[in-house]
Amino acid sequence: MLSYLLKRLAIGLVTLFVASLVVFAVLEVVPGDPARLMLGMGASEDAIAALRDQMGLNQPLALRYLSWAGHMLIGDFGRSYTYGVPVRELIAERIAVSLPLAVMALLLSMAVAIPVGLFSAARRGRASDMAVMGVTQLGVAIPNFWFALLLVYVFAVTLRLVPAGGFPGWSAGPGPAFQALILPALALALPQAAILARVTRSALIETLSEDYIRTARAKGLTRSAVLYRHALRNAMIPVLTILGLQFAFLLAGTIIIENVFYLPGLGRLVFQAITQRDLIVVEGLVMLLVATIILVNLVVDLLYAAVDPRLRSPR
């Protein structure tokens, strides 16, 4: 188990290093002069020279990368040119919205998808299975921003059960805060639940055709016991893979949803930083999201080992 963990950790660190090289090259080398890009073409040469000096752009490329990566490792993401505050303060403020939203959406997705996948796999080929798969196909096809607008119209405008947008802040209490996040979480969760339900069904159907499942049935185990005690656990590896990818998407890919609901999260901060050409914020956010995705993948790999004992044995 330890060798498996160390191997996955080494792969994650190498991936993070390569990603840092790509991010640094794309945002600081490829576009040309980052200072001129941030200030605009109409900026004076003195202002551009001052910003270049502030960002350390006059240093050699290798030294710039080492300085940038070293500051990233200690949590120093630089200072936002637009907002005039440290980037980590902006991230800490926005992640307090995006992280609970992503967790809520993931839990809702699991709560819907796994029972639906079990139900459909247990009734493979029947009318109920075809109906469920038709609904999930519709869920995959519908864009989440359109679904978000539909939710706003039904639950906020028509029924007036929840606010249509905005975030009161956690200082207003957990009740109002979670109430403001419920519609965005549903808008993110249900399309993802459709994908997860289809993956769960496919993995279960494949597992149910294995020899050990037939042996379990031959021993007299009930259909539900075979399904829940034997098939589900062995079908969880592809499900865990999709869950890891979904969490990364829910945390990093919420730009449209956060703009629809006017939520001050990471997705909206990315959008604002790009439109304002604040490359310092973009660099910090991209590297944070890359590190988060790598960490999530590491956790998923550990869950693989917990689900499948064969991965824990040395080879």
UniProtKB/TrEMBL annotation:
Subcellular location: Cell membrane
This protein's UniProt keywords: Cell membrane, Membrane, Transmembrane, Transmembrane helix, Transport
Name of this chain's protein: ABC transporter permease
Membrane disposition: Multi-pass membrane protein
Origin organism lineage: Bacteria, Pseudomonadati, Pseudomonadota, Alphaproteobacteria, Hyphomicrobiales
Domain ABC transmembrane type-1, residue spans: 95-304
Location, primary (coarse class): membrane
Database matches in PROSITE patterns: ABC_TM1
Record-level GO cellular component terms: plasma membrane
